[in-house]
Structures are given as C-alpha cells and as structure tokens.
Design a protein that fits this description.
By secondary structure, this protein is mainly α. The protein is built from seven helices and no strands. It has one domain.
C-alpha cells in the first residue's frame, strides 16, 4: 500500500506562500509602528478583559514599562516578519511569531460579551486572525517545506557543499 506523500510540491508551495504572507503582515505591522512613533499599545491593553487583564493594567500604569513593551512589540514584529519573508531562521521566527500572536489572543480573546463596545474589523467567536495565524505558524515551524525557498535553504546548501 502506498503511503500518501506528506510533502508534495503543492503543499510546499502553499506553506511557503503562507510563510511569506504572514511574514509580510507581521513585518508591515512592525514597520508601521516604527514610522509612527505616536503609536502605543495602550488602547489594546486597556481593552484586555481576560486572564491577562491584571498584567495589562500593570503595564499601562508604568510609562517606562509601557514604552519597553511597545519597543519589544514593534521590533519583535519587524524581526519575526523579516525572518519569515526572507526564510531566514524560519523555525525560530515561526515559534516567536506564534508566541506573540498567542499573547495578542490571550490579552483580548474573542469571547461572548468581551469587547462588545470595542470597534473591531469583524465579529468573532473563539477564532480570530491571531489564532489562525498562530496555528499556521506552528505548522510552518514543524514543516520541513517551510524552510525551502529562502535564505535558510541557501545557507543549508552552502553548508553541505563545504
């Protein structure tokens, strides 16, 4: 009996496309925050209603901590996005991206009644774009196909030649 191929060309192409698209999204978000110094995470954190609401209040209460969180968020998005777009350090970038997106999700989860008065781009129940992108990044992190067609592949090929 033939085993189904788990890593065919179509699957590889789709994973690489997803890697690039999510990378672009995160990179653009980071760059946007870099070029708009007035941006702050304070509005997002002020909306926190779940298990991390106490941490959010603590971050907001101290301007120095808020500034550090904003810097880490901005540069984290930029670095993770760049890694995914370029296919450089793909697994660590995907894992870091998963962690960051899950923090966004846990600070403001799409539960019934949560954020009912907060303007959002859609209406969600349990599943939103942060969760979808985070799960996709887990798939990218564990897939060998995700490292193809990027700088990771070039580095690996160069290493094998030596």
């Amino acid at each position: 009996m033939n085993k189904p191929q788990l890593d065919n060309k179509w699957q590889s192409a789709i994973l690489i496309t997803l890697r690039f698209l999510i990378g672009w999204h995160l990179l653009y978000e980071g760059i946007y925050k870099l070029v708009h110094p007035e941006w702050s995470s304070i509005a997002f954190l002020a909306q926190s209603e779940w298990i991390f609401s106490g941490i959010a209040e603590w971050i907001i209460s101290d301007a120095g901590i808020l500034h550090m969180v904003d810097l880490l968020n901005t540069w984290g998005l930029t670095a993770i996005g760049l890694g995914l777009v370029l296919g450089l350090f793909t697994r660590p970038a995907a894992i870091a991206g998963t962690a960051l997106l899950m923090l966004y999700y846990l600070f403001n989860p799409p539960f019934i009644g949560a954020g009912a008065s907060v303007p959002m781009e859609g209406n969600y129940l349990l599943v939103n774009k942060n969760l979808i992108e985070a799960v996709t990044l887990v798939l990218i992190a564990v897939s060998p196909a995700a490292k193809r067609y990027g700088l990771d592949m070039l580095i690996e090929n160069n290493r094998k030649k030596k």
